[in-house]
Amino acid sequence: MSVYFLSDLHLGAPYFPDSKDSERRIVSFLDYIKKDAEAIYLLGDILDYWYEYRYAVPRGFVRFFGKLAELSDAGIKIVWIKGNHDIWIYDYLPTELGIEVVDGAVSVELYGKNFYLAHGDGEGKQSRSFRFIRWLFRNRVCQRAFSAIHPRWTVPFAYNWSRHSRMEGEARGLPDNVLLSGLREFCTSYYSSHPDVDYFMFGHVHVLSREKVADGCEMIVLGEWIRTCSYAVLNDDGLELRIWKQNPDNFR
Asked: Which of 71, 141, 161, 189 is in the most buried spot, having the most CB atoms within 10 Å?
C-alpha cells in the first residue's frame, strides 16, 4: 500500500487548451493508483476557482468529483488542504465526497515518518500585497459580501483574474527562487523547535524540488499538473518523486 501526494492541478483554469482533457488526465491517474492507494493528500490549488453558495455550487468537475467519491467509498482516505485558489470550500465537498478538507497545515505520521504538509502560501516570506489578498479572501465579512454577488459576475471575474495573474507572472518571470527561499527559511526555523519532522511538503511554487533541511529532514515541493504532472508516493521503500506519463490506454 502507498500514500500519494499531489498539488496544483488548477482544474478549470482558463489557460488550459482543453479543460476536460486536463480533468480526464487526473481522473486517469487516480484510476491508476486506486489499486494500492491507502491515502491521498491533495496539497491545495486543486481547482483554479471554487466558491460554494448556500444553495448552489460551480458547474464542472463532475468526472473528478465522481472519481474522488468512488475512491472515498472504497475506503481510501482523502485529505484536501486548501490552497489560495480553492480556499472557499465549505461543507459541500466533505459531505458529498466523504473527504477531509483542511484550512492550514497538517502534521501527520505516515509509515513511521513525521510530515508537515501545507499548500505553502502561508509559509515563508510573501509580498505585502499577497498577504493582504490572502487575509481579504479569508475574511468572513468579505466572503459574505462576495456571496451576495450573482455568480454570472463573480465566476468570470475569478477566471479572468487567474488568467491575468498567470500571464503577468510568466511575463516577468515567476519568482520561484524567492518563494523557494522563503520556504527554506520557514523549514529551518520550524525544524529548530520541531526536530521530529522528517519531511516538509508543499505545493504552490509550481516547481518540483527535493532538498535537505537538516540531517534526516527534507523539504519536498510537489510541482504542478499544468505541464509537469508530478507527484510523490510513500510506501515501505521510502518517499519517491515521480512524473505521470499519460497513456491513452489508462483512460476509462
From this structure: 71
| CA dist., res. 233 & res. 237, Å (int) | 10
87: helix, strand or coil: coil
Q: In what order do the strands lie in the sheet with 106-110?
A: 106-110, 113-117, 199-202, 217-222, 208-214
Model confidence pLDDT, tens digit, residues 4-21:
999 999 998 877 778 889
Give the separation between CA 244 and CA 252, rounded to whole angstroms.
16
Instruction: Tell me if 74 sits within 8 A of 36, measured CB to CB.
Output: no
C-alpha closest to that of 135 among 154, 148, 121, 125: 121
Are residues 137 and 49 in contact, defined by beta-carbon separation less than 8 angstroms?
Answer: no
More confident site: 120 or 54? 120
Band (pLDDT 50/70/90 cuts) for residue 78 is very high
Q: Which of 141, 173, 15 is nearest to 85 (CA)?
A: 15
All three cell numbers of 223, joined, read 510541482
| Per-residue pLDDT at 251 | 34
Tell me the sheet residues that pair with 231: 242
Q: What is the pTM of this model?
A: 0.86
